[in-house]
Amino acid sequence: MRIVYVVPAHPLFSHTFIVNEMIKMQEFGQEIILAPLHSAPNSSVRHKSYDQLQSLSILPAPLLNLGVGVLALRMFFSKPVTALKTLIALHYQAGLNIYAQGKLIALVPKAMATAWRLRQEKVDWIHAHFASHTATCAGIVASLIGIPFSFTAHAYDVYNTTPRHRNKTLHWSLRHATRVFAVSHYMADLLRKRLPKRNDHISTAYVGIPLDLFRPYAAPSRDSGIRLLCIARFDELKGIDTLIDACSILRVHGLVFHLYIYGDGPLRKPLIAQVARLHLESCVTIGDAICQEEVARQMRGCHAFVMPCRQNKSGDMDGIPTVFMEAMAIGRPVVSCGISGIPELVRPDETGLLVPQNDARAVAMAILRLARDDRLRIRLGQQARALIEQQHDNRFTTRRLLQTISAAANPVRESGGSRVDAPCNQFSQDSDVEKTVA
Question: Is the entire prediction scored with pTM above 0.85?
């Protein structure tokens, strides 16, 4: 198959899960065309694993320039009726939300130019990661060139309810996509409620990670105390401020520990100031963002991974953080909060510990429990690895995604339409069936 991946930006510095998925798609014999919405800013982080990605066609990244405008007009005038019907439906869906309308106006030329570029490429399928602008773009392209599309919904693209960020075109995308994938059962159920009458094309497709990089590894000795790790974007959803407060409580309890925090984001300065204010410089270190290979190395050197995620006032929250999968694959228990799809991965007293969000004392007590009970910590880590092998091995998650896409593509071609209402097999967390993709 020739599959177009619509992604937020290129290069994909921060979306390792997308690149890892494309690598496996290529290994399974699929041809990938990358369609980014815009150019990504330069990053000092370089992931060596990206070298495994074979050469692929990459469409021009700029969101809008003269070339984009010319191609958009050509596409419009080649299929004016289809274009008008699609755009009218989308703008109607955006309603009176000026932010949604503005984003559509900015996105439409890029989507139509992409359709023009792909019209003679013999594309079999379009897949978008995230249910927001990328899914809208994929839907517009699919309607103009007459091929099926799907998208994977992750987190902010569905959860955020503020007027500026609310996904007003989500319902349109859900109705027009041939297949819709969600990164958790929690998310899939939420999407089905958005489309109660015809939702059998919505299923769970867990994110996968490369288990050849994230392998089981014995935890280091505890001669210098317990080593805690948190790797995340520095924003309020991650609950890093709560984690730092928990460290202050751990010190009062006399625990010998060191917390290493790696990442970057808007809260870097406030978090550094919080560490200084609580006089935790000797036991909390805040570092920069690190590459995927360094993530694996740091996880091998820790005893537990801690990130007490929270839901903010806008309703936004994490889906299932990929970094949890990576820590668990190496055999480390995770301490977090029971929101969104996290309990599907971090299962209390089975693969980790869950605490209430925004509760520093509960986080501290969970860490103390792991620090004082080596057998518990090791058992949780071993069971965490077993669950990752079953549920998040990207060889199997990508194969299952490809199976569903392949099965849906042929009926679409035969029917001449862009949507099939045949039932879709859900990727159950208990499923261990692997089929061969022709």
Answer: yes
